[in-house]
Specification:
By secondary structure, this protein is α/β, with parallel strands linked by helices. It has one domain (8-209): Rossmann fold, CATH 3.40.50.1820. Helices cover 32% and strands 23% of the residues. It contains five helices and eleven strands; from the N terminus they run E-E-H-E-E-E-E-E-H-E-H-E-E-H-E-H. The structure holds D-malate (MLT). D-malate (MLT) binds at residues 24-25, 63, 66-67, 105-106, 109, 157.
Length: 217
């Protein structure tokens, strides 16, 4: 019996892929559902709500200050989230080897932490405004992981040097990393969603029928 300890929303899909949607600080399980559908109309969507509250705002792990993380809590919450994904995969009969994280800000940071600490969980990740959440003692083997990072050149929270540091860390673990530097701040832009969607299609399911680049108006 699946007794999830994370409140979540699940939307079935029509392919073997699942997008694990991870919201930013102050978000919830509903926030990224439209984004997930835009990125991949055929994927199942699994969207948990972070359990940590900061002044009433849900997050995926505790922080001591902006960009200063409580590493013990981060590690604990990373394993908790990974175990949730394993349980949800069994319960909803998801293909465990086709889980793609899509995280924004705090959600991107825990997705990265999961890549580093529980590399077996994620097949790929789309990380909007991510930073280096922690540096593990031993780097995992991420040679089968594909990662897309969207960074804003005017982001006051995640400096581009920090985004580049993340790229280096993931590449040194063997991941296939694409970074897109945008004229943007910390908020998401429509243009980058389209870029991330094209990357996902090209990298992960290039041969799928009906998978031509769509025009947006
Ligand atoms: C974090 O705490 O994960 C980052 O500072 C991003 C944020 O949530 O503002």
């Amino acid at each position: 019996m699946f007794a999830p300890d994370l409140i979540h929303e699940f939307v079935p899909g029509s392919s073997e892929r699942t997008l694990l949607l991870l919201h930013g600080t102050g978000g919830n399980e509903h926030d990224l559902i439209p984004l997930g559908r835009e990125l991949d109309p055929k994927a199942a969507l699994l969207s948990p709500r972070g359990k940590v509250l900061e002044n009433g705002m849900p997050r995926f792990f505790r922080r001591l200050a902006e960009g200063v993380f409580d590493l013990d809590d981060l590690k604990k919450r990373t394993h908790e989230l990974a175990d949730f994904v394993v349980g949800a995969s069994r319960h909803y009969k998801l293909a465990a080897n086709h889980i793609i994280a899509v995280g924004y800000s705090n959600g991107a940071n825990i997705a990265t932490s999961m890549l580093l600490l529980r590399p077996e969980i994620l097949h790929a990740a789309i990380l909007f405004r991510a930073m280096v959440p922690l540096v593990p003692d031993k780097l995992p083997d991420l040679s089968s992981a594909r990662v897309w990072i969207g960074a804003g050149n005017e982001d006051p929270i995640v400096l581009t040097s920090e985004a580049q540091r993340l790229v280096q860390l993931l590449r040194s673990a063997g991941a296939d990393v694409t970074i897109h530097l945008l004229n943007a701040g910390h908020g998401l832009t429509n243009g980058e969603i389209e870029i991330a969607r094209d990357w996902l299609r090209t990298k992960l399911f290039p041969g799928e029928s009906g998978n031509r680049k769509q025009k947006t108006t």
